[in-house]
Amino acid sequence: MRPLVSVIIPMYNAAPYIRQTILSVLNQTYNHLEVIVMNDGSKDNSEQEVLQLQKEDSRVTYHYKPNSGVSDTRNKGIDLCNGEYIAFLDADDVWLPDNLEKKVNAINETGKQWVFSLHESIDENNRQLDVSMSNFRPYNVVDNLLLWEGDVVPGPCSNIVVKKEFLGQDIRFDTSLSSPADRDICLQLGSKGEPFFINEKLWQYRLHSQSMTSVNFKVVDEMVRLYKKADEKGWFSSPAIRRRALSNVNLILAGICSKFPSQRKRMPGFILRSVWYSPFTIIQKKILPFFSKNKTK
Question: Which of 84, 112, 234, 245 has the fewest CB within 10 Å, making it most exposed?
Answer without folding.
Answer: 234
